[in-house]
């Protein structure tokens, strides 16, 4: 990790460095992704199955592409009962949290005959992409499906790549079944995104696609936006720990490494007002690296995108945290709740020494699908709002419209939209000619 004293130029360079990890920087893959999408759009199942054979080494047909009840039952036999129990406990927490986000339709009526309101409607269908193989994360299955189900989405379609035997990771199937997926298909990659966006003979088009994936999946989601809605273009994982001299250096080091192990593009940053803590954390990191199984990946991640930033004041440290707008922000200070009130930009905020980032990844309840690459400045975590749409409701009686109709006509006239003005005026032409 690079240890630096905070200066304006330091922060500017770090932000520039972190943005290099954005999927928007990988347009060299866009052409290949577009070819895959075009093939699925024009040839449907034929292209989908050919591409599954090419990329996953698996023969899938219209008869086998959809996961059966028997396959789901078999998955339960392969997953330890203890893990199923943990999945169910996490699921309860996640559902309880997201239920509190639910919005409802409302109407406001006035004595003059005016009724204004908002109608909240769940999306009809949603596609959830889930990575397969070594990158299988049952926790992400729960985080993507539960808010859709809470919102009231009736059709929740999950796609995930099969292995060479045509099978899906058992824990992924169990999590999907527990969370409430209505359809599960054995396809992955950009071709799966194409199937969800355009529809094929076997997989119907959905209204929105959510879920993480590799660069091909990310670029495919970006390319189909407009044909369907998407959640976001997710970048590599990141954590920022904001700490003072009261922080436990061993805890801080462990938390930084929890994100650095994701991949070589992951970012781990410590911002502290204590030079002593900075030295201690670096020492603890070296100790952990001697024992952790993914130490090679962690070292490359820390070498590329790991920083220890030392600030003169907490105000300066907070400013840096807000500028970086990290996906995960841990506040480990003497009074973390006070510091939290000054944070404007963060995907998820973890307060205190015993609220480490993995708590949010797996169990606490808030969603772990979070904005990355500085997008926490304008994006929010995945939630129930992502699976609903809102319609405005307007009702005016003649008595309510009469006293204001000339105001509306005047406004329309100022914009030279005479048909707009006429649409209002025609309702009162008899009265106006009396």
What does this entry look like structurally?
- This protein is an alpha/beta fold and about 425 residues long.
- Helix content is about 45%, strand content about 15%.
- It has helices at about 10-20, 30-45, 45-55, 70-80, 80-100, 140-150, 170-180, 190-200, 215-225, 250-260, 275-290, 295-305, 315-325, 335-340, 355-360, 400, 405-415, 420-425, 430; strands spanning about 1-5, 105-110, 115-120, 125-130, 155-160, 185, 210, 230, 240-245, 265-270, 305-310, 330, 350, 390-395.
- A six-stranded parallel β-sheet has the order 1-11-10-9-12-13, with helices on both faces. Strands 6-5-4-7-8 form a five-stranded parallel β-sheet, with helices on both faces.
- α5 (about 80-100) runs parallel beside α6 (about 140-150) and α6 runs parallel beside α7.
- The protein is globular.
- The N and C termini lie far apart (about 85 Å).
